[in-house]
Automatic annotation (TrEMBL):
<dbReference type="GO" id="GO:0008270">
    <property type="term" value="F:zinc ion binding"/>
</dbReference>
<feature type="domain" description="SET">
    <location>
        <begin position="42"/>
        <end position="464"/>
    </location>
</feature>
<keyword id="KW-0479">Metal-binding</keyword>
<dbReference type="InterPro" id="IPR044237">
    <property type="entry name" value="ATXR2-like"/>
</dbReference>
<keyword id="KW-0863">Zinc-finger</keyword>
<dbReference type="InterPro" id="IPR002893">
    <property type="entry name" value="Znf_MYND"/>
</dbReference>
<dbReference type="Pfam" id="PF01753">
    <property type="entry name" value="zf-MYND"/>
</dbReference>
<keyword id="KW-0862">Zinc</keyword>
<dbReference type="InterPro" id="IPR046341">
    <property type="entry name" value="SET_dom_sf"/>
</dbReference>
<dbReference type="InterPro" id="IPR001214">
    <property type="entry name" value="SET_dom"/>
</dbReference>
<protein>
    <submittedName>
        <fullName>Histone-lysine N-methyltransferase ATXR2 isoform X1</fullName>
    </submittedName>
</protein>
<dbReference type="Pfam" id="PF00856">
    <property type="entry name" value="SET"/>
</dbReference>
<dbReference type="GO" id="GO:0008168">
    <property type="term" value="F:methyltransferase activity"/>
</dbReference>
Amino acid sequence: MDSSPCPLDKELSDQIAALLAPPSPQSIQEYYDKLIEATKCHGLRIKYTNKHGKGVYTNSEFKEGELILKDQMLVAAQHSSNKVDCHVCSYCFRFIGSIELQIGRKLYLQGLGLSTKKECDYETFSHSSNGMCQNEMEEVGHFVMNESDDMGSSSSKNLKADPLPEDLLLSLINDELSLPYTKQFTLPPVIACPGGCEEEHYCSKLCADSDWESFHSLLCTGQNTEQSRRASLFKFIEHANSTNDIFILAAKVISYIILKYRKLKSSHPIKNGKQPSLDKTDEFSFSLLREAWKPISMGFKKRWWDCIALPNDVDSCDEASFRMQIRDLAFTSLKLLKEAIFDDECAPLFSLEIYGHIIGMFELNNLDLVVASPVEDYFIYIDDLPCKEKHHAKTVAWPFLDALGDEYAVCCQGTAFFPLQSCMNHSCCPNAKAFKRDEDRDGYAVIIALRPISIGEEITISYIDEDLPYDERQVQLADYGFRCRCPRCLREQS
Ligand SMILES: [Zn+2]
Ligand SMILES: [Zn+2]
Ligand SMILES: [Zn+2]
């Protein structure tokens, strides 16, 4: 591949190399010990060995079905295409508003031609770019309409009923029309973005403030943002939405580091009196930048264009040019982001080398963010009512179900980086899995024991569909950059 088109890659090569250097075993251990302390997951510890890298081990026993970990996302974003379907908090990804708002908003936006796709089905998950599909789809999408004769919906199969009148939908959105039994499914109220943009909404002031402080204050396109930055941000977002929304996630990472850097700097003011020499100031600033970057330094990463799996429709002889195109795409996105939020003191973050590695980290480590829809639960509830109540409720609610069609239960989908879960190693006979229980209504990753786990055992999950035969598993795992030597693979390899 020819040399980088980004001048910063060369100019700042020393700083970039320092940021990308793998952290020392000691600093890895310290970082995770602190993280475990802060998240109070005392049943777990992260162990780092030079031979096996990071792994998650138990400090206590777990019973089958027991919760092992709820892992908060370090950074996460809902897929752009999913925003029509699900109105969720931009920080914790809880559904917000009301069942009426969820239904009315979705039908209204669909009516405007903002198309929707991706039913929450197995297909979507098994084809996600990173191949991680641990979410148990029977659970998330356990109610498939055409499996139920009882629903009596005329919209079964793939046909959707005629659109409902717009004013009916608006009255749902504006809280003038209530559907029966939705009181059983109250959702948190919709809190607006403090910067005044229409893009982000929250379930609470706490989420709004946390998002603002950690990510959004640099990325908000609201009226309070300076005009030229707003215009640049719009361009960046538009490009991401029309190419790959992973760029939005990368922008969130960069703004997280810049904001953290500024916080660190203001809490470590340069001592009064003696101004250190310029070199020393630079050194000091860079030490703060490294500190701010630390959570990201822990994630395994490679350049995006080097590690992205070659799509099936790209011939292997075109591989080099495909990878070059991916790099150029990332560079275009980076230039747009730089226009919007460049900070001289954090300049290395705007090098293509760092941008590529941040995106590559998501490619290699991330897990899908999934939150089940309360709209699904609502219709199931109505369908399970005793005959008399059900008849009345259905008369009112079913036209909406018909209008929603097969996509009535689309869940919130996105991409997230989970700091502890990403330390879990793969096994084709795992002792744990990612699994959302009924009460898990936000974006956190939830890990449950699949069988009894004793003290000191390593927690393993499967990155792929572990029911696949040996050869296919190895092919899929090659995308993660390793050959599996779990007990089952060792047994089956011959
Ligand atoms: Zn929230
Ligand atoms: Zn905003
Ligand atoms: Zn294996």
